[in-house]
Structures are given as structure tokens and as C-alpha cells.
Design a protein that fits this description.
single chain, alpha+beta, HU Protein, Chain A, three-stranded antiparallel β-sheet, two-stranded antiparallel sheet, 5 strands
Length: 90
């Protein structure tokens, strides 16, 4: 599902103008993005938790030439689904 699909889905369900829905969706994602950049935990009840995890440096291998390559430390976003969401898939 794309952001445009999400806007269309909300439009069909609620009926607000698409421009307003687009602003709301953009604001939601911008707020989440800013929170994750600042290492905040984002909890959405009934859906899950987004967190930022720090991964340390490690040695990897270039698959083209099999030469060892250092992979630098970085931050990654992780998602842990809520129990309610997990139950929907069982």
C-alpha cells in the first residue's frame, strides 16, 4: 500500500477532502520521522512499536570480489508488532 493508496482508502471511508487527508497523512509521517530521528519510541496502540536501534561496526564481505569490508556503525528503525496485530495473522 502506498501513501496515495492510504489517502484514497481514508477518503472512501470518511469522505473528507483528499487535500485535507493528504495533509493529515503527511503530518503523521513527518511527526513519526522526526521522533525516530530524535531516538523517540513511537507506540501505536493495537499496531506496534517503532524504535531506533544502534548497530555496531562489523566486518562483512563484498559479494562481487569476496574481499572483506568494514561495515560502519549505523542506526536502524525496527518495528515490533503488538499482540493484537500478531493475532490477526494466526
Amino acid at each position: 500500500m502506498t501513501k496515495a493508496d492510504l489517502v484514497n482508502y481514508i477518503f472512501e471511508k470518511i469522505g473528507l477532502p483528499k487535500t485535507e487527508i493528504q495533509k493529515i497523512v503527511d503530518t503523521l509521517f513527518d511527526t513519526m520521522r522526526e521522533g525516530l530521528i530524535e531516538d523517540e519510541i513511537i507506540k501505536i496502540s493495537g499496531f506496534g512499536v517503532f524504535t531506533v536501534r544502534k548497530k555496531g561496526a562489523r566486518m562483512g564481505r563484498n559479494p562481487k570480489n569476496m574481499q572483506p569490508v568494514e561495515i560502519k556503525p549505523r542506526r536502524v528503525v525496527t518495528f515490533r508488532p503488538s499482540d493484537k496485530l500478531k493475532d490477526k495473522f494466526q
